[in-house]
Structures are given as C-alpha cells and as structure tokens.
Amino acid sequence: MTLDDLDALMMARFSCRAYRSDPVPRQTIEAIVDTARRVPSWCNAQPWQLTITSGKETEAFRSALRQQAMSGAHDPDLAFPASYPGVYGDRRRTCGWQLYDAVGVTKGDREASNRQAMRNFDLFDAPHCAIVSSPAELGAYGALDCGGFVTAFCLAAEAAGVATIPQAAVASFAPFLHSYFNIPEDRLILCAISFGYADMGDPANGFRTTRAPVDEIVEWRG
Ligand SMILES: Cc1cc2nc3c(=O)[nH]c(=O)nc-3n(C[C@H](O)[C@H](O)[C@H](O)COP(=O)(O)O)c2cc1C
C-alpha cells in the first residue's frame, strides 16, 4: 500500500447524487463498516453508531422523510453554520454551481434549484442509508471523531465499488429521525450517508469538485 494507492482512492471517491436500485450485499456493507471502524478517536471512545436501512426499510424511510421535508421545520441536533464567510462561501457557491450546471439548473430558476435540493430527501434514490449519531455528552470531539468515521466509510465503500454521499440535509429533521428510528435523545444525529451503486449515466454524477492547493491550507514554520 503506497501513498499513490491511497491518493488514487481519494481521487476516485466523489459524492454520488444518483444511484441504481440494485442493493449492496449485506456482507459488503459489513466489510465497509469493519474497515471504517479502524479510524482513530479521542481515548478510543469510538462514539459512532449507525442505523443502516436496506430494501423495504429504505423505501419506507425515503417516503416518510420526503413527507417530513415537505411539511416539517428544520431542527438539527447540531446547529448548521449560520453563514459561510469569505473563501468558504466562495467554495460553497462553486460546488453548488457545478451541480446546477451539470443537471441544467439555470441562474434564478428557484423551482429547479428547490427540486434539486429536494433530491436529498429522496436519498438520491440510493438503496441504503446510514444515520450517524454520537453521544451528546462527548460534544464537539464526538462529532470530530464521527467525521473521521464518515470519511473512512466513504473511502472503504469506494474501495468496494460502492458510491456514497454524506448528507447533513437529512439530519436537519432530527426530531423525526429520533422518533422514526428510535435513536435516544442523548445521542446527536450528525448526518446520513446514502450509498449504493452509482448511476454513472446521470448528469448529477458528471462533475468533480476541486480543492485548495497545499500552500493555501498550510502555514509552514521552518
Ligand atoms: C458532513 C457532510 C455533509 C454533507 N451534506 C450534504 C448534503 O446534505 N447534500 C449534498 O448534496 N451534499 C452533501 N455533502 C457533500 C459535499 O457537498 C461534498 O463532499 C463536497 O462538495 C465535496 O465534493 P465531493 O464529495 O464530491 O468530493 C456533505 C458532505 C459532508 C462531509
């Protein structure tokens, strides 16, 4: 295993926003979780817990979530950023426009952009969804550890030929998720990861995001 191998895996992964309907075998999902759980966590607390749906459970969840999204108010356990100032806003707009350009949403077409945003609540038609939660008492560090787990899950899945997308949008309906999946109130619902096999013919999967260069993100001392 070389850095080039890992780099190739990192370059291959992308957030998949259109899926085929065929399910991922349980054995493959278990192998992905088995690999992802190797990430480090503070005190080795391993705060992540997953609720993973398949088959009819995904279909029932998708339809309940969509209904919730059309009628319910956003109420995430972990407050969403109030704003994305400066360069963060620039990057957010850039990747948003990449998606809109790919799927043909034009500037000012609110109906089309809302329709694309609502695809989050179809789980982009993925056959599986994992809800990721962390104990509230572990606070920001629990969430930090879970962030590492989410990344590892996405990379392990990519290595297994399975496409993924982390979704904070799903976590915006936290009270509904707690009640629907019976996730205790003392756990913070952080995000979902929808996953399955990518529909590579769909334009939503036809673009790749960029990254700031190393010198922009490192202040070298010495
Ligand atoms: C914690 C987290 C939450 C995210 N939430 C959403 C989401 O709700 N909807 C969405 O379309 N993409 C979501 N994304 C995907 C990001 O937009 C994506 O990772 C970013 O634009 C970089 O693109 P890439 O993953 O294709 O490399 C999320 C990613 C992360 C890590």
TrEMBL record:
Q: Which UniProt keywords apply?
A: Flavoprotein, FMN, Oxidoreductase
Segments passing through the bilayer: none
An annotated Gene Ontology molecular function: oxidoreductase activity
Q: Which residues form the Nitroreductase domain?
A: 11-197
Q: What is this protein called?
A: Nitroreductase
User: What organism does this protein naturally occur in?
Assistant: Pseudodonghicola xiamenensis
